[in-house]
Amino acid sequence: MPAVSRARPGFELGLDLCVFLFLPLLTLFSRGAAPLAAVGGLCAFGLAAPEGLAPWRKLWRPAALFAALLLWGLLSAFWAVDSGRSLVMEARLLGLFAAGLALIAAAPLVAAPERLLAWFCAGLAAAVMLTVIQYATLGALTDRFLRHVFDEPALNQVENGFALLLLPLTVTLVSRRRVVTAVLLAVPTAGVIFLLVGDAARVGFVAGIVGALLIYLQRRWFTRAAAALAALTVLFAPLIFPPLIGIDAIRDRAEHLAKISLWHRLEIWSFVGARIAEHPLLGWGLDSSRAIPGGTAFIPFPSAAPPGLPGVTWLPLHPHNVTLQIWLELGLPGAALFALFIARLWLALGAAPWPRFYAAAVGGSLVSACVVALGSYGLWQEWWIGSEFLTLFLILVMARLAGEPVRKRSWISVSPSLERGAARSRR
Q: pTM (2 decimals)?
């Protein structure tokens, strides 16, 4: 494909632009992460296409898992509560998974990873500034463009993006002898994570730091243990999370917190556990969470709740726990596939030929992602899936830089062909 080969520099510049826009877009309009991932996937495909089948051969295992999950989701449309919605989500997931695989395939082929890193650092700096402005002005940058009124949880998405990427980025910059840049980016980013509204981002980030330390000390043992624990958590989720509301100490603590979110989570999980028990094998169908019978009924507030709060429902859009959502919608087969997927992620981290510090940082990000997934977003939210694939692409590109010797103090890596041409001209 000579035409595609000639267009490769343009595709790579497209990827540079995507990683630059990634975090600012999460700050201002988080739903834009899904189309951004799709554009990135197209650019990544253009980068990988001239290489033939070689970039794709290593991806057959995750591709097979995605295909099996999509196939089971398609079959579930036959008994889903809302079959039309299941089919629409099936098409969206197909596109997102294809884009994600293309991004993974293209990561080793980026000719100028230093330039891509520079673009991402610029985007991170812009996102931190935009986040502070949005928080201080109550959404003045977006109020005129959005129908709904800005509230502080709208910044949770970008805070989670910061939490997932800060450790790998910091380690990469330090390994490239850019300590000052690392500090200038890490300090304000960590400040945003800890000072703004996202409890999930804070808890996930702290858990990630602890996980990174443990992985640094004993990577192979910890990743194997984490793979087993993650798989068991998925498989036994209906027995772990729904009963928590029945534990007096946990329920009393949740009811007396100023924020009712923890109490609401426990009530949601209890409701979802009962619905899972009704269809434990097949589930209720792909993306059926928002149509579960009884899910829109209102929950009576606990007596300790602050007065004047608006009502909440038993199941608002999704269970806020990916392990329960996979059980609720796709039953035992879906849970088994998801357990296998997350276990393979941990085992792949254990086997990755990365420097010790970088592998630990990536492990911390994976810990953070797992913590967030157990209490925040829906499993099929397109912006979240797109964000995860863009994050993985960045981690894979940064892994190359973290493991390479530093040859020159330039943000721009010159391609090998240009280096050879310059050498010939000097001779």
A: 0.89
